[in-house]
Amino acid sequence: MDKVNPNFDNITRQFMSLERSQKPKMLVVDDEPDNLDLLYRTFRRHFSVFRAESGAQALSILSNEGEVAVIISDQRMPEMKGTEFLSKTVPQFPDTMRIILTGFTDVEDLVEAINAGQVYRYITKPWDPNELKTVVERAVQTYELLKQRTEELQRAHAQMALMETLVQVAQDSDSLETSLPQIAKIFSDSFGTDICILQLVEDDHLIDVKGTHSQDESLVNPLESDPLLPDAIANRQLQVWINTPGATPQDATEYYQKIGIKAHLLIPIVHRSELLALLSLQWQQQARKLSEDELKLIHLSAQQVGLAIATSR
User: Whole-structure pTM over 0.85, yes or no?
Assistant: First the structure.
């Protein structure tokens, strides 16, 4: 496989670099504006910090912004205590690290929350900034480890589902044409794409037989005009473009920015040295990071699709 795709390492590096420059998210919650400002100034250099003056406002921010790495919340707030607010975040964001700030001896509430896994640590007021920074640093490390394990489990499940479904579609489909949209949907669901196209090739030219799956059918990027197409056909190797600083080639950058594509992975499907089809995975909002193992899974699965195509012809 490495001889067929010597650019695996390069493609992996591009995908794995997607989120390096992004700061982790933090939400700070306190009904005292001075405390909010202090927490913001303490962490703004290393975090994207969101501020809320109540539990209700904090829940609204989470609803709009999604998961954050760390939540720091005051315990004693009007209408909703910190532990009550944090308990409401657990079902949707189980990996988030939760830290309580308390100037009171709310031992019963804190112990209950910690035992229930709702609070990572509590810090007494007035807090030591260095101590709080150390606690947050460890919390982020724990969060990243939990996310890594969660993602590994999700990938394992997705890989199993992908392989099982590919086999099932190959067995149950009435014809090659009817199976192509189903296969495109399988790949799209497994790797979180906004657009997936599986299009057949004859004599190194695209033909008008394809399966497409898109989150928005009006936004499909046709492969006929795609800048990655010539090299994919000529070299029979995975091609990638990712919207990162210095992305090349320039004509591809201009093309993808014009149609709103953030990343495109184009996989030639080859069987016995014959190019049978192209599999296109496209991301419009934000491309997910793909590990080398995932790229190899995509390639292996695509070649299994090639076997099915060759058999059906």
Answer: no
d(CA 175, CA 211): 12
In tens digits, the chain (313 residues) has pLDDT values of: 434 455 677 787 777 666 554 789 999 999 999 999 999 999 999 999 999 999 999 999 999 999 999 999 999 898 899 989 999 999 999 999 999 998 766 666 677 777 766 889 888 888 999 999 999 999 999 999 998 888 778 777 777 777 777 777 667 666 778 889 989 998 998 888 999 999 999 999 999 999 999 977 666 788 999 999 999 999 999 999 988 776 777 778 889 988 889 899 999 999 999 999 999 999 987 667 787 778 888 888 888 888 888 887 7
Residue 180 has a CB neighbour count (10 Å cut-off) of: 24
The structure tokens listed for 201 are: 């090739």
**Cα atoms found within 13 Å of the Cα of residue 216, Cβ hemisphere only:** 9
Is residue 190 within 8 A of residue 162, CB to CB? The reply is yes
How many residues are present in the chain?
Answer: 313
Q: Nearest CA to 137 among 61, 48, 69?
A: 69
The answer to whether residues 126 and 30 touch, using CB atoms and an 8 Å cutoff, is no
Distant-in-sequence, close-in-space partners of 66: CB < 8 Å, separation ≥ 6: none
- The C-alpha atoms of residue 151 and residue 148 are separated, in whole angstroms, by 5
CA 193, 195, 201: angle at the middle one, nearest 5?
120
Residue 71 makes CB contacts below 8 A (sequence gap 6+) with 26, 27, 28, 29, 58, 86, 89, 96, 97, 98, 99
Q: What share of the chain is helix, strand, coil (3-state, %, to 5)?
A: 50, 20, 30
Beta strands 70-74 and 263-271 are: unpaired
